[in-house]
Design brief:
Blueprint: H1 2-10, H2 13-19, E1 20-27, E2 35-36, H3 37-51, E3 56-65, E4 68-78, E5 92-104, E6 107-115, H4 117-123
Parallel strand pairs: 1-6
Antiparallel strand pairs: 1-2, 3-4, 4-5, 5-6
C-alpha cells in the first residue's frame, strides 16, 4: 500500500504498469462505466490533478490480506482548475476516501473507490454545508 501511495502521488506511468494489472477494473464514483488497466487509473489521477494540481494522498490506515486490502486515505489539495463543472475557487480541500482493492500476483486487479464527494463539493463551494 505504501508503494501504491507513492504511485498515486507521483502519477508515475512506469509505477502504474508495475502495480496495476492490464486487466484491472476500477469503479469510480460519478462514472457510469468502470475504467480499466493502468491507462484508466492514470486517467482518474489526471482528472483529479486537473482540478487539484497539488493533490496529495496520505494513507491513514490499511487492512491488508493476501488478496484484498482496505485503505482509508485523506486527499489534500487546492482547487485551481475546473472540477466536475465547478470553476477553480482557490479553496483548500481535505477529503477522506475509503477504497477496497482486490490483488493478484502483487498487482491491483479491482478497486472500489469511495471518496467523500459530498464533502469535497461542499469544501469547494459547489454545495451548501
Amino acid at each position: 500500500m505504501n508503494r501504491f501511495v507513492d504511485f498515486i502521488n507521483a502519477a508515475d506511468e512506469k509505477m502504474a504498469e508495475e502495480l496495476v494489472s492490464k486487466q484491472a477494473i476500477f469503479y469510480v464514483p460519478g462514472r457510469p462505466d468502470p475504467v480499466k488497466g493502468p491507462e484508466g487509473y492514470m486517467a482518474v489521477i489526471q482528472m483529479m490533478r486537473s482540478g487539484f494540481p497539488d493533490i496529495h494522498w496520505k494513507l491513514e490506515e490499511a487492512i491488508v490480506e493476501p488478496n484484498k486490502a482496505a485503505a482509508r486515505f485523506m486527499m489534500y489539495g487546492t482547487h485551481k482548475g475546473t472540477f466536475s463543472g465547478v470553476p477553480a475557487t482557490g479553496k483548500q480541500i481535505a477529503v477522506q476516501a475509503l477504497n477496497i482493492y482486490h490483488l493478484c500476483d502483487g498487482q491491483i486487479v479491482q478497486e472500489y473507490g469511495q471518496p467523500d464527494m459530498l464533502s469535497l463539493m461542499q469544501q469547494i463551494g459547489a454545495l451548501p454545508h
